[in-house]
Design goal:
Length: 234
């Protein structure tokens, strides 16, 4: 039977590499982005590299509740996911005491609420089916306080807390829940910084870790994946 995965924010970085990793295993894919052009390029790449894989896309700004709901409805018209990867996120640096007004609201809406609404959209179907795996792509910023983390760190601490609660709630129904907490990963978020590429983790390593956690037997679950650059945090 064909298996299905949702990856939000799947056109770049970690999200894109997760899509590619699961596409290698024949999963059908549904993803979203705010950029129609980026989605088109991703779909062309996946169809070229994995001709047997079905990929579905939808333009959506998941900082807006109504667009999260519209995205979930579009997915439901095609499939109920076996795997849900809440990857959408935005990072705006700043200190809590003087960052621009609106930073907290935007990052909570994008990084936390989108995952909350999307999980709720599919939870009952997963519970009825008694299977599924939910991955929350968080950050080391959700474990370690650091200057200039500001509201981003707040949103990632909240994401980790929500995921821990989900683990307890969904445990009796055979649904696995995993927090993924990567350190500095070489993605578009770091473009323009004067740091050697080899100092960063590879997005493919994060994707491989997600696949490995998914690939365990029904008897085991990886609750948290903490991945850091070999030479430590940046």
């Amino acid at each position: 039977m064909s298996q299905n995965i949702i990856v939000t924010g799947g056109t770049k970085g970690i999200g894109k590499e997760i899509i590619r990793r699961f596409a290698r295993e024949g999963f059908s894919i549904f993803t979203c982005s705010r950029s129609e052009e980026d989605l088109k390029l991703l779909a062309e790449e996946i169809r070229s590299d994995f001709p047997e894989v079905r990929i579905h896309t939808k333009v959506a700004d998941l900082s807006k509740k109504e667009e999260v709901i519209a995205f979930s409805q579009a997915v439901k018209a095609v499939f109920i996911p076996d795997v849900l990867v809440n990857n959408t996120g935005v990072f705006l640096p700043g200190a809590i005491h003087d960052e621009p007004d609106g930073n907290l609201e935007l990052m909570m809406q994008t990084n936390l609420y989108s995952a909350y609404y999307l999980l709720r959209a599919f939870a009952q179907e997963m519970i009825a089916r008694k299977s599924g795996h939910v991955f929350s792509i968080g950050s080391i910023a959700g474990l370690t306080a650091y200057a200039n983390g500001g509201s981003y760190a707040i949103s990632k601490w909240a994401m980790l807390g929500m995921t821990k609660c989900l683990r307890q709630e969904l445990m009796p129904f055979g649904i696995k829940v995993t927090s993924v907490l990567p350190g500095a990963t070489f993605t578009a978020s770091w473009e323009g910084v004067d740091i050697p590429e080899e100092r960063f983790m590879k997005a493919t390593d994060v994707a491989e870790s997600v696949w490995s956690a998914y690939n365990l037997s029904a008897h085991s679950v990886v609750e948290e994946i903490v991945i850091r650059p070999q030479l430590g945090d940046l």
